[in-house]
Specification:
The protein has about 220 residues and is of the alpha/beta class. The protein has one domain: Flavodoxin domain (Rossmann fold, 3-Layer(aba) Sandwich), CATH 3.40.50.360. The chain has 5 helices and 6 strands, in the order βαβαβαβαββα. It has helices at about 20-30, 60-70, 85-95, 120-135, 165-185, and strands at about 5-10, 35-40, 70-75, 110-115, 140, 145. Strands 1, 2, 3, 4, 5 and 6 form a 6-stranded parallel β-sheet that branches. The radius of gyration is 19 Å and the shape is globular. The mean pLDDT is about 90. Bound molecules: flavin mononucleotide. Flavin mononucleotide binds near residues 13 and 117.
Length: about 220
C-alpha cells in the first residue's frame, strides 16, 4: 500500500463495557501496515424517520461523509434476538437514504462480532450479509470472526486477550485490504501473475487445468 488505507469501524453496541467495542479497539491494534481505523461511535443517532431523510441530523451527515471517505468498512456487531441490534441497523438505514444517496454503496466490508453465547453472533452476521446485498456492499467471506463466550476472552480492562481470536481478526483485516485492492483493479487483469498461481490440488491431473491467461 502506497497511501494510507482508511477503514471506518463501527461497533453495534452503546454499552460502556461492550465486548464489541472492545473488539473494535483490538482491531485498531491488528491492522496491516499502512492501514488506519477511523472509529465511529453510534451514540446520539436518533431513530430513523423517513420524513427527515432529506434533512438528516448532523451525526448522520458525518457518518455518511466518513463512510464515503473510507477505503473500506468494518462492522463489529453484537447479536440481539438472533439478529442485528437496532442501533446498528438504524445507523445503516440512515446512511443508505434518501434513495439514490446510499453512502455504503460499492464499499468492501469486514464483519466481526462477539457474544456471551456460544454461537458468537453468527445469526446477526448472516443477517448483516443479507442487508449488504441491497446496499451493494462487498463483504469479505473469510475468516469468519464469530467470538463466542466473549466473557472468557477479555481481561478485566476490556482488552481482547484470546490469541486465536486476535490472529483471526488480523487475517480478516488483511483480507479486507486485499479484497479492496482486487475490487479496484481494472477488469480483465489477472488477480496474480500466472507464475504465482498455486499448483492444482493433487486429485486433479495437471493436464486438465486450463492454462492461466498471459498478463496484459
Ligand atoms: C436485547 C438483547 C438480546 C440478546 N440476544 C442475543 C442473541 O440472540 N444471541 C446471543 O448470543 N446473545 C444475545 N444477547 C446477549 C449479548 O450477546 C450480550 O449482551 C453482549 O454482551 C452484547 O454485546 P456488547 O457486549 O458488545 O454490548 C442479547 C442481549 C440483549 C440485550
Amino acid at each position: 500500500m502506497s497511501q494510507t488505507f482508511t477503514i471506518l469501524g463501527i461497533a453495534g453496541s452503546l454499552r460502556r463495557e461492550s465486548y464489541n467495542r472492545g473488539v473494535l479497539r483490538a482491531a485498531a491494534q491488528l491492522l496491516p501496515p499502512g492501514a488506519v481505523l477511523d472509529p465511529f461511535d453510534l451514540d446520539g443517532i436518533p431513530a430513523f424517520n423517513e420524513d427527515d431523510e432529506q434533512r438528516p441530523p448532523d451525526k448522520v451527515v458525518e457518518l455518511k461523509r466518513r463512510a464515503r471517505a473510507a477505503d473500506a468498512l468494518l462492522f463489529v456487531t453484537p447479536e440481539y434476538n438472533y439478529s442485528i441490534p437496532g442501533v446498528l441497523k438504524n445507523a445503516i438505514d440512515w446512511a443508505s437514504r434518501p434513495y439514490g444517496d446510499n453512502a455504503w454503496s460499492g464499499k468492501p466490508a469486514a464483519i466481526m462480532g462477539a457474544s456471551i453465547g456460544q454461537v458468537g453472533t453468527a445469526r446477526a452476521q448472516y443477517h448483516l450479509r443479507q442487508v449488504f446485498v441491497f446496499l451493494d456492499v462487498h463483504p469479505v467471506n473469510q475468516p469468519e470472526v464469530m467470538i463466542g463466550n466473549a466473557a472468557d476472552k477479555f481481561d478485566r480492562d476490556g482488552k481482547l486477550t484470546d490469541a486465536r481470536t486476535r490472529d483471526s481478526i488480523r487475517q480478516l483485516l488483511q483480507n479486507l485490504v486485499e479484497l479492496t485492492e482486487r475490487l479496484r483493479r481494472p477488469r480483465g487483469l489477472p488477480s496474480q501473475p500466472s507464475a504465482a498461481l498455486p499448483p492444482p490440488p493433487s486429485h486433479i491431473e495437471p493436464s486438465r487445468v486450463n492454462p492461466a491467461p498471459a498478463p496484459a
